[in-house]
Amino acid sequence: MTSPTAHRLLVVDDEPDLRTLYELTLLREGYDLETAACVEDAWQLLQERSYSVLITDMRMPDGTGLDLLQRLEAAGRTEKTIVITAYGSAENAVSALKAGAYDYLTKPVDLKQFRAVVASALRDAEVQALMVREPVAAPLGLPVPATAVASPSDAKAAAHALPSALAKLAGHSSAMQEVRVLIDKVARSMAPVLVWGESGTGKELVARAIHDVSSRHARPFVAVNCSAIPEQLLEAEFFGYRKGAFTGAAEDREGFFQAAHGGTLFLDEIGDLPLAMQSKLLRAIQERSVRAVGATAEVPVDVRIVSATHKDLQAEVAAQRFRQDLYYRLNVIQISLPPLRERLEDLPILCQRILARIATESGLPTAPALSTDALSALMHQRFAGNVRELENMLHRAVALSGHPTLEPMDLGIGAWVPGQPEAPEPLAPEATASAPAAQAFAASPTGLHAAPPDAPPPTSPLPRDLVSHLDEVERDILVQALEKHRLNRTAAGASLGLSLRQMRYRMARLGVQVTEQGVLLGERCEPDADAD
What we know:
Oligomer: single chain
Low-confidence stretches: 132-163, 423-453
Radius of gyration: 28 Å
């Protein structure tokens, strides 16, 4: 790390008192500093020399901080920009981050947080300088300094590191090219990113790519599945706890935020986070500090937040299941991943990559290949589970086939012939109830040889006792959920949208018992009070 005096900072604010406050605060840290009172004065200084970090107010007499950001972007400048906005002006902050700002602060500025954000920007600027493969953009009209050119070894390392991270996202379709461009752009700043996509589209892979191509790539990447943590443990897992904070807390333990300090915190399935925890997460993101369970003081943390979900969070906000303020904090920049069925041109390279990895993991001398018929059959699948479904299909084929070339029958599907319709989307129960042909398709073992359209639809008798019938259905669902989650009632309930108390009530009412031998079905009873 270089000394603070090696950094030159530029502060732009039209209020003399605030300009002086920022100047004194940064001078005490040992930074070289210059100030400007308006956009044009700042731009004049930027034309004359380069800076490590630019700190600018949003509104000034002759323009805005966004104007400076746009000029810097057009000139190809590398200064990290911190924008200071008025309290509550979330739209301005979002606009600044989308325009390329590294981070933002709201007035009144907390000086401790101010110093931490500036230090974080300088650290990232240093790392970026080591990764750069081309000369750093010099001030307009000035020659590029010799120190701004990366050495051949640095350039070779950067050239290898940057593409390799994005290369993990296989595919040359236009949709995936757009995803790569977005990843490259958002990696430059601290702006929170929300990755949206169906299950199995590779949301965590995108989050890792953002981390790998950013200046934080050498710091921790901590991935958290929000839906897999019991509600009672969320606060302790996220923020850590102190010895004696609760029964079983035998020692101090860091949380996810502390573990990701200086790096990236990936919050997968953020839409499943309970409302109570959402408010605590919002405060941690806003204040950039966390307080461990049992602690009395908050600890500052420096993390980049990347979240992911398969849910429509806007609909969740409208249904009051997700906080609107947290949604706007997380959804500064959104990356939408296309489902596999919308980028089937990427299927050949995906299969090649997956089969090569399976061969390496299995110790095979050579990777199996797909026959023309197998690839053609795959091209006409709908892949409701996206890339994860494709990966499972290929894993099973390699394990059971043993041949160097995989045929359609190895994949568990029939060969596609010209004129044959593609495998349709799985239909909802309401749709299948009124679609005899779809029911015949679902009843086919392979899903490709449907029964004739005039075949009579299967019928089921109406239940004589609707209440008992519904109880049986509910009991079967509870048993399946418990078995899926290894008899963990909290996790099983959460997967069904139930709290632990609601899960216990339903288990007691329907006679579902968890024992060391597994799930037992006993006599039903009616608890005293409904947990709903």
